[in-house]
Design a protein that fits this description.
The complex is a heterodimer of chains A (about 450) and B (about 270). Chain A is mainly alpha-helical. Chain A contains 17 helices and 3 strands. Chain A has 2 domains: about 150 residues, no CATH class; about 220 residues, Orthogonal Bundle (MetI-like fold), CATH 1.10.3720.10. Chain B has about 270 residues and is of the alpha/beta class. Chain B has one domain: P-loop containing nucleotide triphosphate hydrolases (Rossmann fold, 3-Layer(aba) Sandwich). Chain B is built from 11 helices and 10 strands. In chain B, helix 4 crosses helix 5, helix 4 packs parallel to helix 7 and helix 5 crosses helix 7. The chains are: A mainly alpha (about 450), B alpha/beta (about 270). Chain A: It comes from Nitrincola nitratireducens.
Chain lengths: ~450, ~270
């Protein structure tokens, strides 16, 4: 046996094979090392990504979940007839015209608007803090300012509560919430505290007595945004705006996108024009979303005169943005259907349209749906184009039609994270992110479910 | 030629041909882009006879077969010139609807391609499409008769609702044949129908072709010369885009006129 590693022509076949075996054995080690290295890098990358996902969810959940529970003050509220001096709520007479009734109703509502509900709250506070009236300003900082409108709403709804005493959970001021959750450094001097020393002392006292408690709050879900009564600022407006836009995208981008993809993939002749269209669709998918915002601002708002900050414009812009995604996803799913199925259908005498709609499309549907829903989810999370069509403005109402002013969930997150009262809004921003993420996760779950539901086994 | 053991179709059962030309091709050329794949083929296919197309890979036999029911239309870059007639009618004529043509000229493909639906739906799809069936009983009848003819009825009659894709390869191919005959075509084109099947499944399909001849005109592309000999009345030998020769199968295998045919069937190339 030779120790040489060179293969020479005078060697016997056995010798040559021997050397080859040695070389293979040598290279094996290197190959295995390479494989191990690659596996390690891959596992490291996946591990790192997972770690970041865990960190992301952990921070968002740990910050955001407490925001669903807010400080409430439980008070016996006496709807004092001496304070609420109003006429009986008008009832429409059979002889009365609608306009006349509305006028009477408006007069009654104006009368109600003059009622000092702060007084009612202060009276109620006095029952638990005897010196509340002596420090009126400090006392009124306990309850968030929006609650007086809540009380007015209760009276307007049901005037018979005047004269009664009701046990109500009033939403505490945002700063009270911050204080009892220890989201502010308690050792800071008075000048740097948001609440006066008196108020802080009361809060601690009332908390010890169980009158101030952290309770699950629906304010976050039921209210629109607010800047005067921060504790009652909610997501309802942004949520409705997002839902409306999502529906517009679903009913506009998905059918149009799927239809154009079917035409381009199955029916359009393959020529320079369709090649050009295909290249442009692929390019459009890569266009930064903010550019679509500019397009929306100049076309839908300036040219079509659609309203600013409206979900209709947002929906149209997001539809344009989602179209290329839907088209590309649909085309690749159609491409994946084996040609044998088309041939089978054509061979039996089905027309082109029949072969596509009877056989190809049903097989491609699960993939198309998945692509479409992921496109919609992407649109739902988009904020940049919405900034350019005015959806980043402060809107304190819930839109009832797509033409009303509104914001969207991602934009609301952006607005809240910039709020001055950071101690309170940091948690609320995370809570809004939780809501947005839940919506997205449900959409993705729907995509997976639909995929499983319509899948055809081969 | 004595070394080769061949069984010929006419030893089993003579084909009752009427002597009428069912399909005819005149100077048919096929182009893929600028590349001429078939250089002017002339052929007559008689009613109710079985014609086998043989030849080495890439010789154009499948391409020519696909001209006969215009399946080449589905390929964008493919262009066909010349004239192909079915019952003396030009099938490339503008006035003829390709859907009607394909109802008359059915096709069975190389790879079994049942629809991913139930066996029942596989069969009734064609008849429903062409409005051949109206009621459930019509459909049941056509499913049974088609599967009977394809020799599959006994095997699947209890599981007509199970997916066609769940059958074995040979059964799938017979299902495809049943699907093709469900629309009562006059001509059946078979593009290497047994190339994906094992010998047993192959012999079943061959028996089936034997059963079908007499009622249908069949053109079959095959790589298997024994198969051509066994099932066909006539054999056409293609080479590099030319139809080299066509005549009675026995004649081709025992007394080929062209040198290339002889080389191919004796295994000198191919």
């Amino acid at each position: 046996m030779t120790t040489s590693t060179q293969i020479t022509s005078e060697m016997s076949l056995a010798e040559k094979r021997d050397i080859m075996q040695q070389r293979v054995a040598k290279s094996l080690k290197r190959r295995h090392a390479q494989e191990t290295r690659f596996k390690m890098i891959g596992m490291g990358a996946v591990g790192l990504a997972l770690a970041f996902v865990v960190i992301l969810f952990a921070t968002i959940l740990s910050k955001g979940l407490p925001a669903f529970w807010q400080a409430h003050i439980t008070l016996d509220v006496y709807f004092d007839p001496d304070v609420i001096k109003i006429d009986d709520k008008p009832v429409r007479q059979s002889t009365e015209s609608e306009a006349a009734f509305n006028q009477r109703m408006l007069a009654w509502q104006t009368q109600l608007g003059f009622v000092n509900f702060n007084r009612i709250i202060l009276d109620s506070l006095e029952k638990v803090i005897p010196d509340a009236k002596a420090y009126q300003r400090d006392a009124m900082r306990l309850v968030t300012s929006g609650e007086r409108f809540a009380l007015r709403g209760m009276v307007e709804e049901n005037p018979s509560i005047i004269g009664q005493t009701l046990k109500l959970n009033l939403l505490a001021d945002a700063n009270v919430d911050v204080w009892i959750k220890d989201n502010i450094d308690r050792s800071l001097p008075d000048a740097q505290q948001q609440l006066s020393a008196k108020t802080r002392q009361w809060v601690d006292e009332l908390e010890a007595r169980g009158i101030i408690q952290n309770k699950f709050s629906t304010a976050l879900f039921m209210n629109p945004d607010s800047r005067s009564s921060l504790a009652s600022a909610g997501l309802a407006g942004a949520f409705m705006g997002s839902v409306m836009m999502m529906l517009i995208v679903m009913f506009l981008a998905v059918p149009v996108g799927v239809a154009s993809a079917i035409y381009l993939e199955e029916f359009a002749p393959k020529n320079k024009l369709t090649d050009l269209i295909e290249v442009n669709i692929n390019n459009l998918a890569a266009v930064p979303s903010i550019v679509f915002g500019l397009l929306g601002a100049s076309v839908f708002i300036l040219w079509f005169k659609l309203p600013l900050s409206a979900p209709i414009v947002g929906g149209l812009v997001l539809s344009l943005m989602t179209l290329p995604t839907v088209i590309i996803a649909t085309r690749s799913n159609l491409k994946a259907i084996p040609p044998s199925i088309r041939q089978a259908a054509l061979g039996i005498g089905a027309s082109k349209v029949q072969s596509v709609f009877h056989h190809v499309l049903p097989l491609a549907i699960p993939g198309i749906l998945t692509g479409a829903i992921l496109g919609v989810a992407q649109a739902l999370g988009e904020s940049a184009p919405l900034l350019l069509i005015g959806m980043s403005s402060f809107v304190a109402s819930v839109p009832s039609t797509p033409f009303d002013q509104s914001t969207a969930l991602p934009v609301q997150i952006y607005l809240w994270q910039g709020n001055e009262l950071r101690n309170f809004f940091e948690a609320r921003t995370s809570a809004a992110i939780i809501v947005l993420l839940s919506l997205m996760i449900s959409l993705n779950a729907l995509a997976i479910w639909l995929r499983k539901r319509f899948e055809t086994r081969w | 030629m004595g070394a080769m053991q061949m069984t010929f179709s006419d030893e089993k059962k003579p084909t009752p041909t009427s002597g009428k030309v069912k399909m005819a091709a005149r100077d048919v050329k096929v182009f893929y882009g600028d590349n001429e794949a078939i250089h002017g083929v002339n052929m007559d296919i008689m009613e109710n006879e079985v014609v086998a197309f043989i030849g080495p890979s890439g010789c154009g036999k499948s391409t020519f077969l696909r001209c006969l029911n215009r399946m080449n239309d589905t390929i964008d870059i493919c262009r066909v010139t010349g004239k192909v007639t079915l019952d003396e009618r030009d099938i490339y004529d503008k006035s003829l609807d390709v859907v009607q043509l394909r109802a008359q000229v059915g096709m069975v493909f190389q790879k079994p391609n049942p629809f991913p639906k139930s066996i029942y739906e596989n069969i009734v799809y064609g008849p429903k499409l062409h409005g051949l069936v109206n009621s459930k009983s019509d459909m049941d009848e056509i499913v049974e008769s088609s599967l009977q003819r394809a020799g599959l009825w006994k095997e699947v009659k209890d599981r007509l609702d199970s997916p066609g894709t769940g059958l074995s390869g040979g059964q799938q191919q017979r299902l495809c044949i049943a699907r093709a005959i469900a629309v009562s075509p006059e001509v059946i084109l078979m593009d290497e129908p047994c190339s994906a099947l094992d010998p047993i499944a192959t012999s079943i399909i061959e028996e089936l072709i034997d059963e079908l001849k007499g009622s249908y005109t069949i053109a079959i592309v095959t790589h298997n010369m024994q198969q051509a000999a066994r099932v066909s009345d006539k054999t056409a030998f293609f080479h590099m885009g030319d139809l080299v020769e066509i005549s009675e199968t026995r004649e081709i295998f025992t007394n080929p006129k062209d040198r290339r045919t002889e080389d191919y069937i004796t295994g000198r190339f191919g």
